[in-house]
Design a protein that fits this description.
This protein is an alpha+beta fold. The chain is built from 6 helices and 11 strands. The strands form 3 sheets. Strands 5-6-11-7-8-9-10 form a 7-stranded antiparallel sheet, with no helix packed on it.
């Protein structure tokens, strides 16, 4: 189950709930639930309400990580309660690359009308990540299929820019943005696509000053 839509459909079957019943129980609309199930809404804003109504872990519903049955009893969750002590948000960004001499300038512009991703504070601690260094963005294209698919969401750690062979990084190179597996080969660097229809981008020693590592991928979600 790689997407929120698949996980929601699964847990609705487990709980024996139709769209109408879930809409009433979660105080949302059937249209909202239908849009999530069809994949039209990829980052729904009503995850807390849906998770509460279904009695599942909101982090599992959002990411697929952990045990969906680990969510606390429904009476613990209160409407309009501030959960900032338990969860932190990562904003989705439109990443703009400004042309210039030498290194590119990365401008992080929040995506309009997009809800932030919610993560348990314990997740950052377990991954040894700092929330402020984590940026979320969409993957576009099919060059990294099947590891990353078109419209997947990824989080990159912008503090982690030292290349480790075989890891996936967001990169800027000659006014283009990439997300690729990176391997060093002697004095050059290869940006590798998992889809074999796409040839590696080979960056030779003379062009390495034009390569900028934005950050290492630390999470993906469908």
């Amino acid at each position: 189950m790689n997407t929120i839509a698949e996980r929601l459909a699964f847990i609705m079957r487990e709980r024996g709930l139709k769209q109408e019943a879930l809409a009433e129980k979660s105080e949302t609309s059937q249209v909202t639930i239908s849009n999530i199930l069809s994949g039209k809404t990829k980052q729904p804003r009503n995850l807390f309400q849906l998770a509460t109504a279904l009695n599942v872990d909101v982090h599992w519903l959002q990411t697929g990580e952990g045990d969906y049955n680990s969510y606390p009893d429904v009476d613990v969750i209160e409407k309009d309660k501030d959960y900032s002590d338990e969860y932190v948000s990562i904003d989705l960004y439109d990443v703009k690359l400004s042309a210039g001499n030498g290194a590119a300038v990365i401008e992080w512009i929040p995506r309009k009308s997009e809800e932030p991703l919610l993560f348990q504070r314990a997740w950052f601690k377990s991954k040894r990540l700092c929330q402020a260094d984590c940026k979320a963005m969409y993957v576009r294209g099919h060059s990294m299929y099947p590891v990353l698919q078109d419209w997947d969401t990824v989080i990159v750690d912008t503090s982690d820019t030292d290349i480790i062979d075989g890891e996936i990084y967001a990169l800027a190179y000659k006014n283009n943005l990439y997300i690729k597996q990176v391997v060093r080969t002697g004095d050059s660097v290869e940006l590798i696509s998992f889809n074999t229809e796409y040839a590696p981008v080979i960056i030779k020693e003379d062009d390495l000053p034009y390569l900028q590592v934005i950050g290492r991928k630390v999470w993906r979600g469908g």
